[in-house]
DNA sequence: ACAAGTTGTTTCATGAATTGAAATAAGAGG
DNA sequence: CCTCTTATTTCAATTCATGAAACAACTTGT
């Protein structure tokens, strides 16, 4: 379909936004002649469009952008129950959304998902292009080729050939990825931060996950387990260290996860609702303050360790808006900063971001979009 | 000098060891025709040699190896006082070694180093090829282009154009790198472990440093600060947390560095010698045991965090042989393992390795060797 | 000893990707 | 209307890599 040259152009425009042929020639270090030919192909194929004239000295340049109806992508999140299925355009705009109960038995799960994919594909109207692929985000470990779920505790899956089965049910290319990894890849492609070769993402939910983009590529680790931080021993020597489901004590997850925070609130006789807890803390309720302080401090220490080890240009923390304005975030930030050595003039950017309900599914769609735009070996 | 194709062949043989043309064609996914031509060039240029016949079915294959007299490389370690300067061949074999006092004032330092380089270059006899470049390993931060020392606390340097000055003094290409980074790059090239795309190295000395090879490339971080672990807050809530020179308390360095171990030994009224301390611990001396146990446990926790976050295929810990057989190492390993979640059947390899006196200088020479073998943009 | 089979290496004409230089296009500014 | 500047296209040439076939050098079986 596309040659390597075509993919280089598409991925550049996908990452850096619309630009002229001359810009492309500069960025890609290719001759104007090559760009001219490659762009012509992409225009006739209906993937790019000439979308504006930019006037300066000399002949105006024509900015080239992705056509939003070039192709559509399906993203499926198995991160939580209900399962989310979205259809997006190449910019990550959601064109359609479905929710479904999560089914653990693989075959039944795939059949019900395939039925939704079928329906969504048929529903595409004027605005959307043909579906180019399916991305699936799921908790657990995924094989390096993004086809097989090696192990997922949450789903109870071991060595399930997700891409194979879904592929033969739908006839579309399928890409499977760990949920947090899918999330960061979605951020990378659709997040609108331009081209950041090195950044990390931490997701705070009922569990805690992190993922890293290093040198522009997802870092999956030698065994696909990179980014595990939920069981980092943070409160290890504290006398109050809680036992964790992993068998150790004092894991980050036992203090800072939303589940842990709600649990601590219940134990203290408070409502297990984050908004209420934050409000109580803001009013000065000592137990509420203590719980959020402890959780924020623990996460802050873990973030500091991440920053020291990985040194990302930017750290995106996905956190419930209910917590964002609370003492939790304040303490987290402060604790992180005290434990990060800083060379003068050098600063890492910390970004707080509220997870949207579609975040994981959009990330999953991004997997398919990356394959379409970037080609076979983009990660 | 060499084309990209030539570099691909040289780097493959440098990393994976000698191999036949047909092997190269398989590994590099290039046609036999291309390999044939490229190899011919390298043979006539005296960089490769046909070094053995391997008999199997059919025509025997000719293994191609790097000629050890193809080129020599100079490595300079500013890691500690005395400065070490070595001359190596492309296999990392040390052909000559010089020691010099470390001079802080940049210009004087460069002049004295350049004089040694001059002398070493003249001394090369039969065995060695022409000097192809100089690598410099130094504590502190280095610019992304490996030319400028941005900041080095140990040397007191800020924005010193090391490569520029040394280059004009010697007329050779110069590459500067952080000392721990140079060490891991040396391990990668000369370590004899073949081709490991993902591994990490921790150096335990008076300070503690780590470095990571990710996807076959050094991970330097967005600000060149990746791998910092000396100030990871490990013993953070312990009542015995010691103040650290960084201003915080409970940093890894305050417990596990050799300096800290020796300091703790002195405080306990013991000799500040690692071998003696290990021996005492082996005899059951309670203070010695406590000191080594505490240090080993702290490092073990830090290693666990590293493994969880990065998930390397292999973790090389460079540690004094005096400690290697002691309770320190035993506790370190055990503590690390209890805090690493393991998926069944998946194992990370922990390698203990004694630092040689030339380790840093050899790593530095490796910088120049990589440039020679791999071409401009290898990291 | 000889033929057949297997694998490694080289040769050569071909094709694809990319390029530099020149030509052309489309504006701004006088 | 002319000149200057910058963007884009055209075109012939070059570089790079390739597939197929030839050639080489061994092992194995008879």
UniProtKB/TrEMBL annotation, chains A, B:
Organism: Brytella acorum
Domain (HTH marR-type) ranges: 6-50
Assigned protein family: Belongs to the ROK (NagC/XylR) family.
GO molecular function terms attached to this record: DNA-binding transcription factor activity
InterPro entries xrefs: ATPase_NBD, HTH_MarR-typ, ROK, WH-like_DNA-bd_sf, WH_DNA-bd_sf
SUPFAM superfamilies given in the database record: Actin-like ATPase domain, Winged helix' DNA-binding domain
Entry protein name: ROK family transcriptional regulator
Record's signal peptide: none
């Amino acid at each position: 379909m596309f040659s390597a040259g075509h993919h280089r152009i598409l991925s550049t425009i996908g990452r850096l936004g619309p630009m002229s042929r001359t810009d492309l020639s500069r960025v890609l270090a290719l001759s104007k002649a090559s760009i001219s030919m490659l762009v012509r192909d992409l225009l006739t194929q209906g993937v790019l469009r000439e979308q504006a004239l930019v006037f300066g000295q000399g002949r105006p340049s024509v900015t080239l952008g992705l056509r939003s109806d070039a192709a559509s992508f399906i993203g499926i999140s198995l991160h939580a129950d209900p399962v989310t299925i979205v259809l997006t355009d190449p910019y990550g705009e959601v064109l359609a959304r479905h929710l479904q109960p999560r089914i653990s038995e693989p075959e039944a799960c795939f059949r019900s998902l395939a039925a939704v994919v079928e329906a969504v594909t048929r529903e595409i109207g004027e605005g959307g292009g043909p579906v180019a692929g399916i991305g699936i985000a799921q908790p657990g470990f995924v094989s390096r080729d993004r086809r097989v779920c090696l192990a997922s505790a949450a789903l109870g899956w071991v060595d399930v050939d997700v891409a194979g089965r879904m592929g033969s049910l739908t006839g579309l290319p399928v890409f499977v990825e760990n949920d947090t990894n899918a999330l960061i890849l979605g951020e990378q492609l659709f997040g609108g931060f331009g081209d950041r070769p090195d950044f990390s993402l931490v997701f705070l939910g009922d569990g805690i996950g992190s993922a890293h983009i290093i040198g522009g590529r997802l870092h999956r680790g030698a065994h696909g387990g990179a980014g595990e931080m939920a069981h980092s021993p943070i409160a290890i020597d504290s006398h109050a260290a809680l036992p964790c489901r992993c068998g150790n004590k004092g894991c980050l997850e036992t203090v800072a996860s939303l589940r842990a925070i709600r649990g601590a609130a219940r134990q203290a006789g408070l409502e297990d609702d984050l908004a209420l807890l934050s409000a109580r803390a803001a009013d000065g309720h000592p137990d509420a303050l203590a719980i959020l302080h402890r959780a924020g401090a623990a996460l802050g220490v873990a973030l500091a360790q991440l920053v020291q080890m990985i040194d990302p240009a930017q750290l995106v923390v996905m956190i419930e808006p209910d917590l964002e304005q609370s003492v939790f975030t304040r303490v987290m930030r402060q604790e992180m900063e005290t434990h990060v050595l800083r060379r003068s003039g050098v600063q890492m950017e910390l970004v707080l971001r509220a997870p949207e309900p579609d975040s994981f599914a959009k990330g999953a769609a991004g997997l398919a979009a990356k394959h379409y735009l970037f080609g076979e070996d983009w990660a």
